[in-house]
Amino acid sequence: MTLERVCSIQDVPDGEVRRFDFGSVRIALAHIGGTFYAIGDRCTHLDVSLSEGEVHAKTCELECPKHGSCFSLETGIPNSLPATKAVPTYVVRIDDADVYVEID
């Protein structure tokens, strides 16, 4: 595993999500109430960028902007159709004011 610096904590405001690329790995990094979540950025239903979707803070989900599937930011499992397969999740670490993600 490689620990990659993603951004500064100020780069992703609370309640928002941003896309970051590490070679062929695309990550959607979401921020909810001081906690950061990293999941794969490709919807498993269609190859749509999840980082263009809406963060649902109360349910800790990220909604696909194309067909509305909601993915758990904690597990990557879709909680609504049409997606049925999970997206990968990544361990997030905060060091000072920087966000790091463990990538295989």
Automatic annotation (TrEMBL):
TM regions (residue ranges): none
Q: Which organism is it from?
A: freshwater metagenome
Q: Does the keyword Ribosomal protein apply?
A: no
InterPro entries hit by this protein: Rieske_2Fe-2S, Rieske_2Fe-2S_sf
- Which Gene3D superfamilies does the annotation name? Rieske [2Fe-2S] iron-sulphur domain
Supply the name of the protein: Unannotated protein
**Domain named Rieske: residues:** 4-101
Enumerate the GO terms in the molecular function aspect.
2 iron, 2 sulfur cluster binding; metal ion binding
UniProt KW keywords: 2Fe-2S, Iron, Iron-sulfur, Metal-binding
